[in-house]
Amino acid sequence: MTQSTWKTIRAGEQQIAVTKNLRIPMRDGITLVADAYRAVDEPDTVTPRPALVALSPYGKELQALALTMPPQRRPSPMWDGCIEAGDIARVVANDYVHVIGDLRGSGGSEGEHIGNYNAGGVPLGQDAYDFIEWVAAQPWCDGNVGMIGISYFGSMQVLAAAERPPSLKAIFVSGGHYDFYETTYHGGIMWLMPRAAREGRGGDSGWAFTDRVKSRMLETHSAEEIEKLVTERLQDPDVQAWPNLVHTLYYPTNHEAWFDIVMNDVDGDWYEERNPVNLAENIDIPVWLQIDQGRGWTMDGTIECFDRIPAANKKLTIGPYPPMQSRPFIEEHDKMFRWYDKWLKGIDNGIDTEPAVSVFVEGTRKYAEGDAFPPKPVEHRELFLRPRGTLSFEPEAMGVEHAAPDGFFQAPLTVTDKVEILSWSTAVFEESAELMGTGAFHLFAAIDQDDTNWIMRLWNERPGGPRQLLTTAYLKASMRELDPEHSTPGSPVHPLTRKVPVEPGVIEEYVLRVYPFAATILPGHKIVAELSCNEPLFDAHNALLPPDAFHVPVGRPVTHKIYRDAAHPSRLVLPFTIMQ
To answer: Which are the contacts of 465, defined by CB distance < 8 A and separation ≥ 6?
Structure first.
């Protein structure tokens, strides 16, 4: 048993006992390091308390800024996406021990980090198991352990719970990432934000790695294979037009994690290895999943994870827009402490009898409650794209000879700053309409290249006021194949496992998955659908995100024709709740 040396520090008016650089052995001989924070006890006494464990590769010292830095919201330039382990002072004040550890290959911990949610060939969930059981055995812990932290810290909670460590009694996951492919490619379109993982860009400090992080691609392929694969990847015009991607491919040991992501642009075994969604079926402890609206791919993964968890006591909360929580992370602590007071301290506070699912509905700004998502019955209704930028519940009667297609030409962003956008809007709503769930965007289109991006953004436009983003949809044209077994009307699913080039000039039906959302369109408001192949780099929505939280633009000039006539019923399929 390791003897901890504790010292007392001050956080405002609060006194906190801290012990630094605890050395925690893993089953293969590697040692991880951690810091622990607790309330100050009487001299020569140690009061055992439940512990909340936080694990990530972001560095435990960075998390300690929660004691000195006021929480920052975007667009504050001091916002740092990696300070995610929670409010240390508040954890201590609620009589828990806050234990913050560095994952294998990061910070002060030993070992190597290679690739995805594995490290040095060891599943990170396995390390979490050993870490939790060590914490539970310490004299300052009463044997009851939960976990804390958002984003990467949240994903670690799912990986840990799937290993079933006996002392882990419950988890509370906020803003977790699940399907790793959907974390890095949205509908097959590469998202730039994950490049911050290794290097620290766009408001993130990055992983606390030194020379102990390695590319899984470089570890598992010969030099000849890597040269061939890199050459093939460089043929993609989207890659060619983005200097950071070219640099990454030529100098992979400078960008190990990002190199692996860039090289794996379709879904498959590399992403499925230790996929938290697949592992969720092993979880048998109480779980509360929380996510905010505004970044639909994360909502999609959170809901799928919730659906797959077989545990009897599970909850799902979907909170309001905007999408970025404070750093240091402080939100959702009230819910978290109620959850852990019940499952770690045995306090009968009734939280286990409350509705399992709670969803914030934009517009009315009220919560809808139920047992599943969506928590209310819905019917999918069609809104058809019509001439003159109109969205209508009535289909187009004219043929293509009269309802001529809409179109736009997008030049590469290497030669223009302008992102071309098509827009269709409904008439103003005379009565309130509530929408809740997933949707589909059926797009009949022809392009003059073999690929493009389809990006749809759905807005609630209010009279005389700012508009609000409701949800988004993304699809790489070459990855348009549908999964017929799992797709349903209003909820298309794409395998995203291969690219099938588009035949230029041929009209294709593309079915984009509209990510989950919940909103009420109030009287006088409109629904507006915008279509583009690139994202505007700056607007009211993107200002809330880190500077590079957008998608790799199309690197070739493309002409797009959007057909919306009687033979080509381009349409939105949206989930309207059924009034009861």
So the answer is: none
Task: Select from 213, 230, 212 the least CA-distant residue to 221.
Answer: 230
- The C-alpha atoms of residue 259 and residue 386 are separated, in whole angstroms, by 43
Per residue in 205-255, pLDDT (tens digit) is: 888 876 778 888 998 999 999 999 999 999 999 999 999 899 999 999 888
Q: Give residue 1's pLDDT band: very low, low, confident or very high (50, 70, 90).
A: very low
- Cα angle: 352, vertex 300, 277; to 5 degrees: 75
Give the separation between CA 474 and CA 150, rounded to whole angstroms. Answer: 25
Could you tell me how many residues make up the chain? 580
What fold is seen in the domain 378-577? Jelly Rolls (2.60.120)
In the chain, the amino acid numbered 252 is P
Domain ranges for the chain: 7-188+267-354, 211-265, 378-577
Mean pLDDT of the chain: 93
Which amino acid does the sequence have at 249? L
Whether 2 has a pLDDT exceeding 60, the answer reads no
The 3-state DSSP class for residue 131 equals helix
Euclidean distance between the first and final Cα of the chain, in Å?
60
CATH for 7-188+267-354 (3.30.750.24, 3.40.50.300, 3.40.50.1820, 3.30.565.10): 3.40.50.1820
- Is 177:298 a contact under the CB 8 Å cutoff? yes
